[in-house]
């Protein structure tokens, strides 16, 4: 699983560098995210701009990440969500829990100021 980890202000960014986020890759993906969260990350942005396909196991993994962040008082948002991926996420109702953003900048803004709150929003047009 190719991931790139970055940071802007107090937001950790996990960039998925795979076209498909599917079952065989999820354990490495989740392990990396868990390590960040256990290391103190409370604002997590997952950049899916390279991802054109996700499966149902990936949806479950995103929900696991959501719960992990909720348990620690944190927030997770998705950026760079492609139309096909957005459809899958919306069909499962995950978009009601995890904010979807097309652009990284708007996702970062949605976290609010450093140390700020967790705004809820819909996918940017």
How many helix segments? Answer: 4
Total of domains: 1
Using only C-alpha atoms, the radius of gyration works out to 13 Å
Would you state the CATH class?
Alpha Beta
- Assign the structural class, choosing from mainly alpha, mainly beta, alpha/beta, alpha+beta, or little secondary structure: alpha/beta
Main beta sheet, described? 5 strands, mixed
What is the average per-residue confidence, as pLDDT, rounded to a whole number? Answer: 91
Elements, N to C (H/E): EEEHEEHEHEH
Shape: globular
Strands of the widest sheet, in order across it, are 1-2-4-6-7
Q: Could you say what the CATH topology is called?
A: Transcription Regulator spoIIAA
Name the poorly predicted regions. Answer: 115-125
CATH superfamily: STAS domain
**First CA to last CA: what distance?**
30 Å
In which range does the helix fraction lie?
A: 25-40%
CATH architecture: 2-Layer Sandwich
How many β-strand stretches? 7
Amount of beta strand: 15-25%
What's the SSE blueprint?
Elements: E1 3-8, E2 11-16, E3 20-21, H1 23-38, E4 43-47, E5 53-54, H2 56-71, E6 75-79, H3 83-92, E7 99-101, H4 104-110
Parallel strand pairs: 2-4, 3-5, 4-6, 6-7
Antiparallel strand pairs: 1-2
Helix pairs in contact: 1-2
């Amino acid at each position: 699983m190719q991931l790139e980890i970055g940071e802007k202000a107090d937001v950790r960014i996990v960039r998925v560098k795979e076209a498909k986020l599917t079952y065989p890759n999820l354990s490495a993906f989740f392990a990396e995210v868990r390590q960040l969260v256990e290391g103190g990350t409370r604002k997590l942005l997952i950049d899916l701009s390279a991802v054109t396909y996700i499966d149902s196991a990936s949806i479950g993994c995103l929900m696991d990440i959501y719960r992990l962040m909720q348990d620690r008082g944190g927030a997770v948002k998705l950026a760079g969500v492609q139309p096909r991926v957005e459809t899958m996420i919306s069909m499962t109702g995950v978009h009601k829990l995890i904010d979807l953003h097309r652009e990284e900048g708007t996702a970062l803004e949605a976290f609010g100021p450093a140390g700020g709150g967790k705004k809820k929003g819909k996918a940017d047009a």
